[in-house]
Amino acid sequence: MSDISSFAKTIKGDVVTPDDADYANSIARWAKNCRTQRESRRARQRQRRTSSSPLPMPKEHKLPIAIRGGGHNAAGASSVEGGLVIDLKRHINHVRIDAEKKLGYVGWGRHLGSGRPGGYQIWSRDRRRDCNHTGVGGLTLGGGYGWLAGRHGLTIDNLKQPMAQSWTANDTENSDLFWAIRGGGSNFGVATELGLPTAPAEEDRYSQVTPYTCPDKVEKLVELTKKWLDNVGEDEGIGSGCCCHSGRQSPSLSLSSFIMGLRRRDEHIIKKFFDVGPVVDNVREIPYEQLNSLQNPQAAHGRCYYLKGVSQASPNYKATMELIHKVPVSAMAFRRQISSNILTNVSWEEGVDKAAEAREIAKELVDIVLRGQGNSLDDAEKSGYTNYDHDDIDIHIPSASIASPTGDHWAKRADLAFASNYPKLQQIKKVYDPENIFNRWYPITPA
């Protein structure tokens, strides 16, 4: 495009095009199957609230836009074919601490595992369970589950003030946008800074990732898990995963547990899990940062991934019920539910064209889970946690149109993603983004 040079002068940052040596690296993503999308150009913002807006040029030329933070969406929400990517990872990855207010201001493009600024951590609850190389922006505005959610809620519950070049949003200033962005994610633009509470660095925690053989141990482990969840404390958590590797005859089941302040495991129900007979005993006290990296090897950069979310009803899950009722569904745009989340993660090394096959595998696994739920889930709950879903973004956005298609498929998916909050989101979208420029993640159709 003849005016790229003029465009580059209008922003505080870099503009990368397919002619630049750094282009291949700049379009790389966590999931290798997202790298095939070729952006016409990439604007990498350098400054925080004073950065110039890169929007006039793509609006003038009807270019589709995507926002890249951590680049951890396997479906391509941070990529776009033949358009402009606003890349926050390189320069908008700062943390600044306001010790007096006990707030940390985090750049959208920062990774969760980027260290402790000034001896603080931006509440451990803002870190994703077991995997710490996701980006702060997408995780936070999409919900943000973590090991300390029982005590502190989701990451999104702790967001105090997102800020951008031209706006600040909180309970008193642009309160409608503050409501919408907490769950509506990138549908309303770029929040270059997120204000979150700080806390002293967490001490060591009792933790484990314990593998078991399948299927001989499954029934007993499920029974014990239900008993734990019936009386789970706010400083405890448990997750399970079934892993099947190509070429191996039988899958394995692993349990991840988190207990804060436990010194003797024979005083807790966790002892009964070991009585079942794991393959190996991995229980130990580890720093919280290490706890948040336990699954990094299973979610390594450079592989192909297909993700699919679903929910599972968990009766008598008292702690979750209490937490959910503390924050009403209408408090923010995020779709809050009492059912627990399940992530189906299909990954492979080579062949980015295998996504269709992976989709069928994921669908089959999700269908198995749903059959076991009977009629206990509504349609929105069946769709799972929004940050876990791969669908929708696979639909190609024509380069000639700045807005995404508003067909029945996408409209239904957004309606399920936000449930009863969707009509209000549509009204706010009409105010802040009537042209539907930001449309790469559960696109909201303006009212």
From TrEMBL:
Cofactor entry: FAD
GO molecular function, one term: oxidoreductase activity
Record keyword tRNA processing present: no
UniProtKB keywords: FAD, Flavoprotein, Oxidoreductase
SUPFAM superfamilies membership: FAD-binding/transporter-associated domain-like (SSF56176)
Top-rank taxon: Eukaryota
Protein name according to UniProt: FAD binding domain-containing protein
Organism, as annotated: Ephemerocybe angulata
